[in-house]
Each structure stands twice: as C-alpha cells, then as structure tokens.
C-alpha cells in the first residue's frame, strides 16, 4: 500500500468542527491554504530529520577518521558537518511565505501547491545525500579508507546540490522559475 501524499493526510485528519467550518464562505480558502502549508511543513520536517541523522553519521565518520589518523580529510569533513548543519537549519526554519492582505507578492493556492511539490522533490536529493553519508560511514567502519577522499568530494557536491535547489525555492514559490 503506497503512502498517501502529505496534503491528503492533513486533510483527512481534520476534525468535524473544522469540516463544518469549511462550508463558511471565506473560511474555506483560508483553511485549504493552511492545509497546504501544514503538508509542506510535514515534508520539510522529514527532510530536516533526514539531514540531522546524516549529520550525526558524518560526525561519526569524522571520529573514525580521527581515530585512524587520516588527517588529510579531517578538516574537509569537519567543514562538511558545518555545511550540512547550516543547510538542515535553513530547511527547518524556511518561511511559509504567508501572503498578508497588502503584500506586493501574493502566494496563492497554485504557488502553495507548487511549493509542496517542489519540497517533496527535495526529499529525493536529501535521501541520496543521506544514503551517500551512510555508505561512507559503513566503509570507514569496515576500514575501507582508500576511497574516503572521493566520497568526501561526492558528499560535498551533494550538499551543494541540495542547498542550491532549496535556495531556488523562493523563486519557485513566486513563480519566477520552474
């Protein structure tokens, strides 16, 4: 059985009173936007937790490299930990982009749907990064140090890819780019 999309899960969890309130003119549009924001928050929480776990794995890699006295990639690995933490926090603290009544840039339902779709696609990039870090940790645990520098560069590129994709999020929401 396939997992339901986040928006469907949020909509199904509505209480009876909220369902009744959806019939009130004006409230329905507000509530539907709120559901999209909540679904997007669920997706971003998932990405954040994935990245925190990956950061912890990368910290463990740093410890293994330090114990094995592989000093040439200790500093780059430490920098990767800091970069990954920064990207994870950026995703965790990303604005919902509420549009106030008199904002010059309004974020309407289609943009919220696009934001949710975009953030859902980011999970693939984050999962790929987490998998790379996990295999790096496994290799180091098994004393397979020969490809450590190449994997470290691959992790660096993946972090850059994720951060660049997330930075484009604002443009995607505002409809500037696809």
Quick gist of this model?
This protein is mostly helical and 178 residues long. The chain has one domain (24-93, 105-173): Four Helix Bundle (Hemerythrin (Met), subunit A), CATH 1.20.120.
**Individual helix count:** 7
Main sheet properties? none
Order of helices and strands: HHHHHHH
What is the 3D form?
Answer: elongated
What is the end-to-end distance? Answer: 31 Å
SS strand fraction: under 5%
What's the β-strand tally? 0
What is the CATH architecture assignment?
A: Up-down Bundle
Pick out the low-confidence regions.
98-105
Any overview of this molecule?
- This protein is mainly alpha-helical.
- It has one domain: Four Helix Bundle (Hemerythrin (Met), subunit A).
- The chain is built from 7 helices and no strands.
- The protein has helices spanning 6-12, 16-21, 27-67, 74-92, 109-141, 148-167, 169-173.
- The radius of gyration is 20 Å and the shape is elongated.
- The two termini are 31 Å apart.
- Mean pLDDT is 82; it is low at 98-105.
């Amino acid at each position: 059985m396939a997992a339901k999309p986040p928006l469907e899960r949020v909509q199904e969890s509505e209480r009876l009173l909220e369902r009744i309130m959806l019939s009130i003119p004006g409230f329905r549009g507000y509530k539907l936007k709120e559901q999209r924001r909540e679904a997007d928050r669920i997706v971003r929480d998932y990405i954040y937790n994935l990245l925190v776990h990956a950061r912890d794995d990368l910290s463990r890699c740093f410890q293994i490299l330090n114990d094995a006295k592989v000093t040439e990639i200790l500093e780059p690995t430490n920098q990767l930990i800091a970069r990954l933490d920064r990207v994870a926090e950026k995703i965790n603290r990303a604005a919902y982009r509420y549009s106030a009544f008199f904002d010059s840039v309004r974020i309407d339902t289609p943009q919220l749907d696009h934001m949710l779709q975009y953030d859902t696609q980011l999970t693939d990039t984050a999962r790929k990064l987490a998998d790379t870090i996990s295999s790096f940790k496994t290799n180091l645990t098994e004393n397979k140090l020969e490809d450590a520098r190449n994997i470290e560069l691959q992790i660096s590129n993946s972090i850059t890819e994720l951060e660049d994709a997330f930075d484009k999020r604002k443009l995607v929401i505002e409809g500037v780019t696809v």
